[in-house]
Design a protein that fits this description.
Blueprint lengths: L3 E2 L4 H9 L6 E2 L14 H19 L5 E10 L2 E3 L5 H11 L3 E12 L13 E13 L4 H10 L19 E5 L2 H5 L3 H10 L2
Helix pairs in contact: 3-4
């Protein structure tokens, strides 16, 4: 299965390698990831994955392009990647002792061939959205402080990495674990295999 990965995330590359998939190329998308006013988390994640996929597919229109986005949602509130330690601390306080959703969206651009045999714009972009639920234990201030000091919160939606030190915060998960890490593998494999 050959494809271009529209992501700079090392976690996504690791997850793909875990199931024997390796992109032919990695071309990260450069888009504005600011949520729109009153945009719901599921719609936001789907839009981000679609926009990343579309942008990269315009640069390499002859290839299948896989893009993904992960959003952490506390109710209707989207928790992005914290800009600093203070914001990461606020995220963890908000998630403490409660259930939240991790929404993963994947998008795959299917190339189209023009009558001349040259590649044109993508024939279509298929988008799939996967939701997982995570319940955190009640976090004490010193636990949050130690986690912030570790630096692991950096570049992580919601300010934590379930595959790292934050694993001890998790009382329960429901749904896809790989989705929480950064890429829903079952759905990604099915999408890539289905366009073979």
């Amino acid at each position: 299965m050959t494809f271009v990965l529209a992501s700079a995330s090392p976690r996504r590359l690791e997850l793909l390698a875990q199931v024997g998939l390796a992109p032919g190329r990695v071309l990260p998308a450069d888009i504005d990831e600011t949520p729109r006013r009153a945009e719901l988390p599921k719609a936001y994640a789907a839009r981000m994955a679609h926009e990343k996929c579309l942008q990269v597919s315009r640069r390499c229109s002859a290839d299948r392009v896989l893009a993904a986005d992960t959003a952490v949602a506390a109710g209707r509130r989207i928790l992005g990647k914290p800009r600093d330690a203070a914001e990461a601390r606020r995220c963890l306080r908000l998630l403490s002792g409660r259930r939240h959703r991790v929404i993963g969206a994947i998008a795959l651009a299917i190339p189209a061939s023009a009558p001349s045999g040259h590649a044109g714009p993508p024939a279509r972009i298929a988008v799939r959205v996967v939701q997982s639920a995570v319940t955190f234990k009640r976090l004490h201030a010193d636990e949050i402080d130690r986690y912030i000091e570790s630096g692991e919160w950096q570049d992580k939606a919601g300010g934590y990495a379930i595959q790292g030190r934050a694993a001890i915060f998790v009382r329960r998960i429901s749904g896809s674990y790989s989705n929480i890490v950064g890429l829903p593998l079952f759905e990604t494999w099915a999408l890539l295999e289905g366009t073979g």
